[in-house]
Amino acid sequence: MIEPDVPRAGGRPRGWRTFLVALSFVWGVAPNSVEGQHIRGRVIDSTNGAAVRLAGVFLLDAEREPVEGSAADTTGFYTITAPQPGEYYLFVQRLGYFENETPLLAVGPDGTYEVDIEMRPEPFRLDPLEVTVRNEELERYLTLEFGVNPNSIFGYRAVQGIRLEEAKLKAHDNTDLLRWLYIPVSHGIQVCVGSMWLGHPKRASGSEGGERLCGSLMLDGYAVPNEHIESIAMDRIAVVVTVPGQVRLYTREFDWTFKPGG
What we know:
Blueprint: E1 37-45, E2 56-60, E3 66-71, E4 77-82, E5 86-93, E6 100-101, E7 105-107, E8 111-114, E9 117-119, H1 135-146, E10 157-160, H2 161-170, H3 174-180, E11 185-187, E12 191-198, E13 211-219, E14 222-224, E15 237-243, E16 246-251
Parallel strand pairs: 1-8, 1-9, 13-16
Antiparallel strand pairs: 1-4, 2-3, 2-5, 5-6, 5-7, 10-15, 11-12, 12-13, 13-14, 15-16
């Protein structure tokens, strides 16, 4: 039921790791339920039971397409509402933690369902390579840039430090680097970076539908033509951020104290 690291047309990018780590799992209709399909609970650190604050919480349909999104508050509590009865996965993401999702859940026509989810910390190995920007600083900057906390954007990822440097050691060029980071790049009539689907990519017959769109490439907050991807010096790239339809590269010289739109 869990499909880690498996490419799927139009779904989450290859390399999205889903870890089912000791779900703290309470499932059932609360005694004082209200009309609607409400799911609520806490997102918890698996190592110490502390709240995972501001984690992105998403409801995925049976084909793992996102249908609703929410976010945990500063105490780890979240509430999300299913659009209709059916079967759903509950998916959580947070910078600094491995992603996680529940097994397929059956949601009835009404009631409130209690589901707590644990997340396993993804440790930053600081030696011998220091990270360029702390998670809190990165999230603060991107929140100003996007207008929402990036953890609440389905598909948000940020890579830096030793993980990025390990990918650089295996990469021949920037295209190869992004592919080692499981970011789609293709060279054809045009260069597509971080492509995404418009419309549902797979119909019931199994054939592909919808339209694939090229994503955009950003360097230190400025748009760069996709075909210029190889003009960026790889050794200058310090942080790689992806959101649906966009790849954002930040160099070692970038000033994270800069206020977007200021």
